[in-house]
Structure formats: structure tokens, C-alpha cells
Amino acid sequence: MTFKHLLAAALTTVWLASPLAQAATQDIHGVKVEDSAMVSGTKLLLNGAGTRYKGPFKVYVGDLYTSKKVNSLDELMAAPGPKRLTMTFLREIEAGPFGKLLTRGVEDNVPKNEMSKLVPGLIRMGDIFTVNKVLLPGDVITLDWIPGTGMVVTAKGKVQGEPFKEPEFYKAIMSIWFGPVPADFRLKDALLGQK
Fold it and tell me: pTM of the entire structure?
């Protein structure tokens, strides 16, 4: 190897280790997924990202940001500080039926005896989606857990009502993606960085 080749290899190694190179975004089906996100003044790191499929159709790109690497729903709940789950839609879907699918996802993952406590929150979540009517390609829904505040739902850039304060409700909603019967096993693995 010539000196020029050695220098080029050394410079490439230095660049790849630099913060600039590590701040790269991923492109998933045209959606830019950043390697970090700021939530409530805290920098969170990308835990994982992937695509939600319904049959052969791509529905949305999901990404999960946490303060430390998590590999399960329990680790997600135990991780300190804020957390963020983002869905960027790839196709037009009706928001009302999407909200009903979220409710079914909770029912699939939460013991029956715990469901009655979740009903008021699920009705509120359903209302959020009903109000938004249609989700278009590029629309974003963000679920932020902020300690001391609760789960803040943002749709199309607007905060949707009051935060959901109960950690149990947040865990039930997260079980849609990370519970024993997730909506999409491939997406679960991707969000947990296991893919």
C-alpha cells in the first residue's frame, strides 16, 4: 500500500468516527429518519426504524427514540427520560379506522382485566383520529412520553388535546408495537434494533 493509499484510509477512518458522519440520516422509502431527536430538552438516540406493512402495502415508516438502547417493552418502560415513537405515513388512510386498529392492538396485548381502566383513554385516542379524518402520505403522528407530563400526541404538526398522564396507558399504547402480539413483527424487530 502506498503512502497515498494509507493516508486516504486513515482520513476515511477519522471521518467515519467523527460526529458529523454519525449524524447521518437513513432514508426509508423516501422518509428521512434522523439518528437523534430532541424531546423536552433531552437528546434521544434512534433505537430503531422500519416499515409497517399491511399485506403487501407499505403503511408508514416508524422510528423509536430513547435515552438508552432498549430491546423490549419492559426495557422501554424502564428507560429514563423522554421517549418518542414517530409514524410517517406512506399512503393515504382514513384516520378513524386507523384509530380503531390501535384499539384492537391494545386489546390483543393487554390482559382483559386491565382493559376497563384503559377505555376512557382509548375513547380519547379514537376521537383524535376521527377529528383528523384522513392521513396523507407525508403526514406524521408523534407519540412523546415526557416524565411528569405524560404522553403527548402530535398529528400533522399539532398537539392533540391534553397529555395522557397514566404510565399504564402509555405502556398499553406501546404494546401495539412492542407487546407479545405486535401489529407487525418485522416492524417490532426493526424498532428494537434487532433487524
Answer: 0.86
| Distance, CA of 20 to CA of 32 (rounded, Å) | 16
Question: pLDDT tens digits, the chain, 195 residues: what are they?
Answer: 554 444 344 333 333 343 433 446 889 999 999 999 999 999 999 999 999 998 899 999 999 999 999 999 999 999 999 999 999 999 999 988 888 888 999 999 999 999 999 999 999 998 888 888 899 999 999 999 999 999 999 999 999 999 999 999 999 999 999 999 998 999 999 999 886
Rounded distance between C-alpha atoms, residue 82 and residue 152, angstroms: 11
User: How far does CA 13 lie from the centroid of its chain?
Assistant: 32
Could you tell me which residues come within 8 angstroms of residue 117 by beta carbon, excluding any fewer than 6 positions away?
Answer: 168
Tell me, rounded to whole angstroms, the distance of Cα 30 from its chain centroid. 17
Give dist(CA 45, CA 36) in Å, integer: 4
Q: At how many degrees (to 10) do helices 112-132 and 95-109 cross?
A: 170
Q: Is 146 left (phi over 0), alpha (psi -120 to 50) or beta?
A: beta
Q: How far apart are CA 80 and CA 88, in angstroms?
A: 25
Whole-Å CA distances, 34 to 11, 143, 163 = 25, 16, 25
